[in-house]
Amino acid sequence: MPIIYHITTKIESDRARQTGLYESPALKEEGFIHCCEANQVDGVLQRYFNGKKDLVKFVIDTGRLKSQLIYDWSTSIEATFPHIYGPINIDAVVAVEKILD
Known about the structure:
The protein is α+β, with helices and mostly antiparallel strands and 101 residues long. The chain has three helices and eight strands; from the N terminus they run βαβαβαβββββ. It has helices at residues 10-19, 25-30, 41-48, and strands spanning 3-9, 21-22, 33-34, 55-61, 68-74, 79-85, 88-89, 93-98. The chain starts with a strand and ends with a strand.
């Protein structure tokens, strides 16, 4: 199955492991969780997480997702990004990788 990625903090990752679901603030604010493909990770880190500490990357098996996955066009950088329209069930996260500061 295709793999996508989501950047979050270690604290939020730990909380999701306890509850079995991950919900980012963007889900409530925008209606979806921002994700990216492998070739987009570095750009996402530079644009949105520059200088932030204790970050991790969810490695998500899209075939295991229970929420809807839609690839949406981003007009700001003219590229398509995967968005998850609902919480991420933690069993779809096949790995959590620490992002080096």
